[in-house]
Amino acid sequence: MGNGHLIGIVLFLLIHLTYSQCPKECKCLRAGQVDCFGADIVEIPPSLPQNIRNLQIINTEVTELKDGVLENMTSLLILRIEKSELSVIGPNALNNLISLRYLSLAGNKLQELPESLFQDLIKLETLILSNNMIGQIQPLLFSPLGNLKDLSLLSNSLQSLPRGAFDQMSGLLKLNLAKNNLTRLHPKTLEQVTKLQTFRVYENQLKEIPERLLKTLTSLQEVGLQSNQIDQISAEMFSNNPNLQKIYLSNNQIKSLPQGLFLNLPELSKLTLFENSIKHISTGVFGPMPKLKELWLYDNHIEELVDNAFSNLTQIQLLIISRNQMQSISSKAFNGLDELLELSLHTNALSTLNEDVLQGTPKLQNISLHSNKIEHLPAGLFRNMDTLVTIQLQNNSLETLPQDFFDTLAHVNEIRLFNNPWKCDIHILPLKNWITQNLAKLGNQSQLICANRPLIGMSIADLTEEQLLLATTVAPKIDETTHLYEDSSDIVPLRTSEEPKQVTTTSATKTMTTSRSGSSAEDDDFVDTTDADVVTDEKERSGSRLFGVVVAIIVLCCIAIVCTVIACVLYQRKKKNHVVLMRMKQQNEAEGTCLNL
Fold first, then answer.
1. How far apart are CA 170 and CA 184, in angstroms?
2. CATH number of 140-292
């Protein structure tokens, strides 16, 4: 009998032995895996095969893991007891599991873990304790886990961490402490985990991050600090982390970004700073970041942008600075952004823009300027920008646009101009002509209407030159322009969890407006009944004036007729009197003659 036959017989016997020992509540698979699923399971089955490598106990009513129940499973590599009612674990329940590589106790009701629980798990590489109710960690709980690579305590009730809790895990690569109740971290919490690559502590109650917390983590690639209460960050925070690729700082209370904060981060490709209280961005904040493609700064308190604020971000393609308080932007604020495709500046307090402000963005495709207070735009604002596809200017205070402005829009596919208080006189003729020739490029063309008398409420596209000339001639000296619109500014929303909602470079300015959110879709669906009310009132007033004129004419005619009748009567009386006087005169003359005789 050959060796091949012997091996086959041995494997057959092993498989037969495994299946003969399989509990009726579970399923035993050929690959040495046992799956025990369902609410009918209320305890760990006592007759489990000893030679299995993968044991999964999921969605059960198991409440306790007792000492010794797994002690003979020395070959076990993977143990998952998840989404069950497990609340008690014996201090020796995991003894003898010397081969275990992966342990997950996620989704149970654990509140504490015995300090000696992991004492035999010297080969363990992954430990998942997420979605429990663990309120504290014993100081030496993780000490035996020198080979651990991944530790998750996500979604528990931790308020603090014992000093040195992770010191013995020198090989740790990933640490997740997110969604707990941590209020502070000791400066030396991570001092010994020098190989750490991912550190997540988002959605806690941290008010500050110690300056030296990340000092020894030269291999760190991702740090998640979003959704805390952090109000300031040291300029040296990331100075010793040159391999950082992702930094999440959104949804905090950060008021300022010190110079040099993002200086030595050549590998950075993701940086989120939205939903903070940042007021100012100085020139020296951002160092060279050739891999950074997106920068999210929406929902801050930024009041202005200075020259060269982003000049080191030469590869950035998406820049979101919407929903701030910007009143001015320096003419060179966007210098160096040669690869920028989309720029979102909507929902700020801008009243105008410098003619050269976009000349540092030669590849710009989409720009969102809606929901500002823009009253005037220079004619050459979009000159030399042949790649421009979409311009959003709705919900501003524009009354007209310079004639040369339209010469730069030949390549634009869409321009939104609705919900502005357009002043319809002869000066708006260039806009009227451009609208007539480019109806397909306009969003909500029906809302491009006049906001001044006597053409209030009329569609600009339907106006004639004669009407515009007449409006210019009869225009009141005192400007009585009536604004028909109210702002319907966006609101992201951009975004939701830590990471903003992902958008393509052709749609980011329409979200947000995720987010943090209504979005610019509100602008598309905007229905303003104010203009209809104004037009109705105007018609009623015109009808009242016409009625008054008719009445006045009738009264004047009546007066004229009465006066004519009176005049005729007086004339007839005067004539009659004249005849009588003549007769009396003749009689007197005759009598006088007789007397003379």
1. 22
2. 3.80.10.10
Q: Tokens for 532?
A: 């209809």
CA distance 327 to 301: 11
Looking at the DSSP assignment, which residues form a beta bridge with residue 333?
Answer: none
Omega before 454 within 30 of 0, i.e. cis: yes
Question: Six-digit token pair at 290?
Answer: 């050739």
CA nearest 174: which of 195, 158, 144, 191? 195
Residue 509: burial class (beta carbons within 10 Å; 0-12, 13-18, 19+) = buried
Sequence-distant (≥ 6) Cβ neighbours of residue 517 within 8 angstroms: 490, 491, 492, 493, 494
* Angle (nearest 5°) at CA 529 between 528 and 530: 95
Sign of CA dihedral 42, 46, 49, 51: positive
Is the whole model's pTM more than 0.85, yes or no? no
Q: Do the beta carbons of residue 513 and residue 370 sit within 8 Å?
A: no
Looking at the DSSP bridge assignments, the partners of residue 127 are 103, 151
Query: In Å, what is the CA distance from 328 to each residue of 310, 354, 507?
Result: 16, 9, 25
> In this predicted structure, what is the pLDDT of residue 529?
36
Q: What is the pLDDT of residues 427-436, one digit of tens each?
A: 999 999 999 8
Rounded to 5 degrees, φ, ψ at 431 are: -65, -45
**467: how many CB neighbours lie within 10 A of its CB?**
17
Q: Which two tokens stand for residue 12?
A: 């057959």
Q: Mind listing the pLDDT tens digit for each residue in 451-484?
A: 998 999 999 989 988 888 888 876 554 344 434 4
pLDDT tens digit string along 164-217? 999 999 999 999 999 999 999 999 999 999 999 999 999 999 999 999 999 999
Same fold, 25-124 and 140-292: yes
Q: Grade residue 20 by pLDDT with cuts at 50, 70 and 90.
A: low
Q: Would strands 246-248 and 270-272 be described as parallel, antiparallel, or unpaired? A: parallel
CATH architecture assigned to 334-542: Alpha-Beta Horseshoe (3.80)
CATH number for domain 25-124, candidates 3.40.605.10, 3.30.428.10, 1.10.530.10, 3.80.10.10: 3.80.10.10
Tokens at residue 420, please? 């502005």
Cα–Cα distance measured from residue 496 to residue 517, given in angstroms and rounded to the nearest whole number: 9
Domain positions in the chain: 25-124, 140-292, 334-542
**Tally of CB atoms within 10 A around 159:** 14
User: Are the beta carbons of 25 and 36 closer than 8 angstroms?
Assistant: yes
Cβ atoms 201, 225 nearer than 8 A? yes
